[in-house]
Amino acid sequence: MAERKIIDARGSFCPGPLMELIAGMKMASVGDELEVLSSDKGSATDVPEWIKKVGHELIGTSEDNGVWHIVVRKAK
Amino acid sequence: MRILIVGGGMGGTILANNLARRLTTELKSGKARITMLSASDKHMYQPGLLYLAVGRIAPDELYRDQAGLLEPGIEFHVDPVTEFKLDKNEVVTQGGKTHAYDILVIATGSRMTPETIPGLAENCETFYTEATALKMFKRLREFEGGKVVITVGVPHKCPMAPLEITFMLHDYFKDRGMLDKVKLHYTYPIGRIHSLENVAKWATPEFDRLGITYETLFNMKEVDGANKILKSEEGTEVNYDLLIAIPAHKGMEVIEKNGLGQNGWIPTHRHQLNMEGRSNVFVLGDTTNLPISKAGSTAHFEADTLGENIAGMIKMGTPVRDYDGKVFCFIEAGKDRATYAMFNYQNPPEPKAPTKAVHWFKMAYNKLYWVSARGLL
């Protein structure tokens, strides 16, 4: 059964939210959802950019109190 | 109070020495006991591997005897842990001994895993062990020219290593009078050439100035060694004559085998550094799953915090402060210039232009490290 894993990358300047997601994606199974928490508004654009380029699926992006929640699904 | 430290790297060693000084009275009276279990009787200065890879340091300069780095009163055994029995507050070692504890600190570090990318291990040079760094240097000595590709996996130890090795390779080939025969090409996983935005802003014009080309949003997928082609998850390819890799890392196998954390990274509280769900188990350095750099300075600053907190728990019944995510990294910008990045959970770094003074401070720190390991700096 597919799972949703939270990647708490708040306050991460290095390696940063996208690098945390790339690492998390390697540990996930196809179909799993990953929710990245980021305090960097740049994640709202650079995560979708990578997801599109590599061919995974963007489920949604939202912002709550300065924290961006970006949900993606591993597609391959 | 029995304090058991598993791992004799930078984090474990600084913590043990820090605690031994803070708990001198308790150690003498028998109220506290510090035991360290390590896989080796030697302590390696891992950042020195970067210099070994370009022939600027000899292997024996990387090591000291671990026992000689530890304060008197610390019990030290070369006997790595094979089994963690957290519900019983015990660990079992390779030698078959059981050690009980009141406080456990896990600082077992990480390891590169080039074997996770098909074709990478057998076709790349790298520098994360003594053997591979020495092999890389010998390969550089034989290299007569061509396209050198520096490629980066995620996650990896030492966030500055990709930039540093690229700049150092540039100066290595320049010193040998080979720059006209060498093309340096760099790939990086995200959409700029370093994870730290301000570092990328500094390094990108440096790459442009030096003629180093780069491709971003490039994550290694496989290496076709027969045709010397590196392929990415994003669907692109790059040819190489010499492939230098910063491979992805994992935590140690014993962590994953014991179910403490996927890929060997233990879920850790970002401020108190305890293992999630365990109040008497703490995690240091690369072994945590925290979203911060896997770097010696991270382990160092975490160990400083944890030393104060464990001593506070013993003396006052409470930890005294939070870890703030502090990291400090030197950045070698070639053979004789360097800068640095310092940041925490709240504040990004603002690297300055490289100078010779910072480079020489880094060279001095390569020796001063042994004072740091003793918990004095």
What report would you give on this structure?
The complex is a heterodimer of chains A (76) and B (377). Chain A has 76 residues and is α+β, with helices and mostly antiparallel strands. Chain A has a single domain, classed as Translation Initiation Factor IF3 (2-Layer Sandwich), CATH 3.30.110.40. Chain A has helices at residues 17-27, 43-54; strands at 4-8, 33-38, 57-64, 67-73. In chain A, strand 1 (4-8), helix 1 (17-27) and strand 2 form a beta-alpha-beta unit. Chain A starts with a strand and ends with a strand. In chain A, 43% of the residues are buried. In chain B, a hairpin with a 4-residue loop joins strand 6 and strand 7. The longest helix of chain B is centred in the C-terminal third of the chain and has 21 residues, at 296-316. Chain B starts with a strand and ends with a helix. Chain B has 377 residues and is α/β, with parallel strands linked by helices. Chain B is globular and about 70 Å long. In chain B, helix 1 (10-22) runs parallel beside helix 10. In chain B, 31% of the residues lie in helices and 24% in strands. Chain B has helices at 10-22, 24-29, 49-52, 66-69, 120-123, 130-142, 161-175, 197-210, 253-257, 296-316, 356-373; strands spanning 2-6, 33-38, 42-44, 63-65, 74-78, 81-85, 90-93, 98-100, 103-106, 110-112, 146-152, 182-187, 213-215, 220-224, 229-232, 237-239, 242-246, 249-251, 281-283, 327-332, 338-343. Chain B has two domains: 2-109 and 252-326, FAD/NAD(P)-binding domain (3-Layer(bba) Sandwich); 113-249, FAD/NAD(P)-binding domain. Chain A binds chain B through residues 7-20, 22-23, 26-27, 42, 46, 49-50, 53-54, and chain B through 116, 154-155, 159, 189-191, 195-197, 217, 219, 233-235, 248, 262-263, 270, 291-293, 325, 327, 341, 343-346, 348-349.
